[in-house]
Amino acid sequence: MGSLKVGDTVKMKYGGEAKVLAEFGSGGQGTVYKVSYNGKEYALKWYHKDVFKGKEKDFYQNLENNIQKGAPTKDFLWPLGITEVHAGVFGYIMDVRPTGYYELTEFFVGSKKQKQVRFKSFNAVADAAINIIQAFRELHNSGYSYQDINNGNFFINPENGKVLICDNDNVSPFGVNLGILGKQRYMAPEVVTGKNDPDKQSDRFSLAVILFRLLFINHPLEGKRSTPPCMTKELERRYYGEEPVFVMDPNDDRNRPVPGTDKNLKTFWPVYPQYIKDLFIRAFSSDVMLKKAPRVIEKEWLDVFFRFKASVVKCPHCKEETFISQQGNNTCIECKKKITVPNAIQFSTVTVPLYPGTKLMMWHADSSQNDVETKLGEIVANPSNPNMFGIKNLSTLSWKVNLPDGSQKPLAPGAVVPVKKDFTIECTTNPKDAGKII
């Protein structure tokens, strides 16, 4: 059985049949169909014949193992069931992508049929980054590597930054590779050169490429040096494997962006906070790319993007989104007017400037909880005096507010404490997580 047509049925290994309702699309490995199975609609990925080059049994067994183990997080469109083998061909079913999600590629370019997709807000960008990073952190913590991270793996909701990760059939336990190397332009240098099979470390390089493109759209390694008139396999190996050069490397300007193609990078590189740019500079430094220094791990990315998420506020002058990176004077990225931030809250690992709209997350207080969703508090302006700020308790826990005179007051959920220097706020059950207003 090769390609399927509407009305065909395919036997599932553990009982029942999936009936083909429509075709979603086709790619290099197979074709995806809309099917009905046990009264519910799913997506069926049906592989092309001979796509596994003799490793069909290994691939089939790996898929079965992944189905039994289950998805690391809800962000994965994980295989849910596998078909029987039909004349050497098989497939698996997964949930159908819901409406409102767009492939990451659509955020990079537009077409006659589809306008370029844009995020509703910088807050949505931050949430998309956090969701992607945390998904791969959980995947790696579960003993898997993805091995083929690329622009076609992600569906993102531009309104809220929610993410769904597809093509999870290539996911394998550490130390196992079924012949999948990855997609050119996203593969780590050691995979391009053949020095290593894909693994957790190569995933981390590919993740850095995805995050860079999420923010800046341009590719981090594609500049005037690495975009010759005629690309050959030898040149690809050099530019993506042997001698990759970051387009914004502060110590090497050989591969700066090509004028005319760098509009997005020229627009956004000056805008984003320096601490974000610094981590990208490290991730794409020669030593890190060539594995002479450690790759940036997921927790480091999460620390940076949670700091960024807390910095996104509305400018009081032009009402557009901007960033506040520090206590004191900040400049709006839109109207260029000054925004003064009198105070910040100092946790054990991060200091967050306090300005209306800032969200305090559990991650800021205690990242060891591995909680990327819980909002602890929000900075609000006093309705009677907009220049006076407070912290609203968004949690379900009564906080303890320690005053400079040594006294302590409770703060019930939904209540607000004034932002005053030297107040120390215990917003979790662990006093070590307390934040001090400075």
How would the blueprint of this fold be written?
Blueprint: E1 9-11, E2 17-26, E3 30-37, E4 40-47, H1 56-69, E5 81-82, E6 91-94, E7 102-103, H2 122-141, E8 144-145, E9 154-156, E10 163-165, E11 172-173, H3 189-192, H4 200-216, H5 233-242, H6 263-268, H7 274-283, H8 286-289, H9 298-311, E12 312-314, E13 321-323, E14 328-331, E15 338-341, E16 343-346, E17 351-354, E18 359-361, H10 362-365, E19 375-381, E20 389-393, E21 399-402, E22 408-411, E23 416-418, E24 424-426, E25 435-437
Antiparallel strand pairs: 1-2, 2-3, 3-4, 4-6, 5-6, 7-9, 8-11, 9-10, 12-13, 14-15, 16-17, 16-25, 18-19, 19-20, 20-23, 21-22, 21-24, 24-25
InterPro entries: Kinase-like_dom_sf, Prot_kinase_dom
Keywords: DNA-binding, Kinase, Transferase
Pfam families: Pkinase
Question: Keywords for this structure?
Answer:
single chain; Transferase(Phosphotransferase), domain 1; alpha+beta; Tumour Suppressor Smad4; 438 residues; 24% helix; Phosphorylase Kinase, domain 1; 3 domains; globular
Provide a descriptive summary of the structure in words.
The protein folds into three domains: 9-94, Phosphorylase Kinase, domain 1; 102-296, Transferase(Phosphotransferase), domain 1 (Orthogonal Bundle); 325-437, Tumour Suppressor Smad4. It contains ten helices and 25 strands. It has helices at 56-69, 122-141, 189-192, 200-216, 233-242, 263-268, 274-283, 286-289, 298-311, 362-365; strands at 9-11, 17-26, 30-37, 40-47, 81-82, 91-94, 102-103, 144-145, 154-156, 163-165, 172-173, 312-314, 321-323, 328-331, 338-341, 343-346, 351-354, 359-361, 375-381, 389-393, 399-402, 408-411, 416-418, 424-426, 435-437. The chain starts with 8 loop residues before the first strand and ends with a strand. InterPro entries: Kinase-like_dom_sf, Prot_kinase_dom. Keywords: DNA-binding, Kinase, Transferase.
